[in-house]
């Protein structure tokens, strides 16, 4: 059976392991690597719940992928956008016990 890395932790990424890498290659880099079985239904449910949380901010929202969302903050100053980003990270952790990364840019790209 051919398996690949679906997602890598920050620690694994620092070693050069990345999404899409064959698991055999990942084990060569890190023999103590642990694979966690995927629970797709749980990931989809959590993604939908986070999307609903973000909808609550009343801003234009784009569902980019199962773990990536984009909010339009065009009316926000840089300082307020950073504050909102921190609030969103806090809310995601408080509600789902998972960490999130927030990126802020002038456009969708």
UniProtKB/TrEMBL annotation:
<dbReference type="GO" id="GO:0006281">
    <property type="term" value="P:DNA repair"/>
</dbReference>
<comment type="similarity">
    <text>Belongs to the DNA polymerase type-Y family.</text>
</comment>
<dbReference type="Pfam" id="PF00817">
    <property type="entry name" value="IMS"/>
</dbReference>
<feature type="domain" description="UmuC">
    <location>
        <begin position="1"/>
        <end position="109"/>
    </location>
</feature>
<dbReference type="InterPro" id="IPR043502">
    <property type="entry name" value="DNA/RNA_pol_sf"/>
</dbReference>
<dbReference type="GO" id="GO:0003887">
    <property type="term" value="F:DNA-directed DNA polymerase activity"/>
</dbReference>
<dbReference type="InterPro" id="IPR001126">
    <property type="entry name" value="UmuC"/>
</dbReference>
<dbReference type="GO" id="GO:0042276">
    <property type="term" value="P:error-prone translesion synthesis"/>
</dbReference>
<dbReference type="GO" id="GO:0009432">
    <property type="term" value="P:SOS response"/>
</dbReference>
<dbReference type="GO" id="GO:0005829">
    <property type="term" value="C:cytosol"/>
</dbReference>
<dbReference type="InterPro" id="IPR050116">
    <property type="entry name" value="DNA_polymerase-Y"/>
</dbReference>
<dbReference type="InterPro" id="IPR043128">
    <property type="entry name" value="Rev_trsase/Diguanyl_cyclase"/>
</dbReference>
<protein>
    <submittedName>
        <fullName>DNA polymerase IV</fullName>
    </submittedName>
</protein>
């Amino acid at each position: 059976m051919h398996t690949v890395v679906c997602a890598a932790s920050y620690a694994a990424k620092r070693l050069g392991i990345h999404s899409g890498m064959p698991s055999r290659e990942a084990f060569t880099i890190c023999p103590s690597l642990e694979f966690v079985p995927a629970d797709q239904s749980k990931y989809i449910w959590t993604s939908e719940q986070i999307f609903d949380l973000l909808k609550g901010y009343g801003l234009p929202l784009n569902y980019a992928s199962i773990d990536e969302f984009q909010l339009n903050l065009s009316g926000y100053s840089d300082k307020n956008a950073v504050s909102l980003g921190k609030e969103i990270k806090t809310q995601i952790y408080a509600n789902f016990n998972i960490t999130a990364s927030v990126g802020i840019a002038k456009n969708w790209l």
